Amino acid sequence: MATVTNEIEIASSFPAEKVFKVFKDFENIAPKVNPAVFKSFETLEGNGGVGTIKLFTFGDAVPFTHTKYKVDAFDESSFSYSYTFFEGDNLMGILDSITQHVKITPSGEGSIYKQTIIYKCKGDEKPSEETLKAEKELYEQTYKAIEAYAATNPELY
Question: Which of 37, 38, 57, 109 ranks highest by number of CB atoms within 10 Å?
Fold first, then answer.
């Protein structure tokens, strides 16, 4: 079983506390800033903390319909969280799971947003370089759109 890792790192002028607070509200913000990709999120089981299972429905601009994911870790004190996609057509028939690790680190007056994505393959077949590049660009665009939303709505965060 092969694994593939994709990493995103983005410097922010916002402090880590604020970036983390905004990303805690991801499920509400993402469909507003990019509805073509993020249609909806629904909690299927749990209260939002570790162990919670959610259904994510993709928007029309994505070649997938839905996925289920589980919250693996959530630590406000270290500005980190992890979750794993374990069911859905985004696994492309070749993946057992996709695990996302997010860590926001203070850096001067701002912070560094780092997202590590681990694709656990069922066999030797892996996501194409084109797919990995497109996903990385999508995650970067989404981060920037969410940060811009927070900047224009400072009263919320």
Answer: 38
Please tell me the distance from the alpha carbon of residue 119 to that of residue 100, in angstroms, as a whole number: 9
Q: Can you tell me the distance from the alpha carbon of 87 to that of 13, in angstroms, rounded to the nearest whole number?
A: 35
H or E element, residue 151? helix 129-152
- State the Cα–Cα distance between residues 36 and 59, nearest whole angstrom: 4
Q: What is the pLDDT of residues 7-50, one digit of tens each?
A: 999 999 999 999 999 999 999 999 999 999 999 999 999 999 99
CB 49 within 8 A of CB 71: yes
Instruction: Residue 8: name the closest of 119, 140, 110, 142 by CA.
Output: 140
Q: Are 84 and 98 in contact (CB under 8 A)?
A: yes
Gap between the terminal Cα atoms of the chain: 42
Q: Which two tokens stand for residue 65?
A: 């319909």
42 DSSP β-pair partners: 55
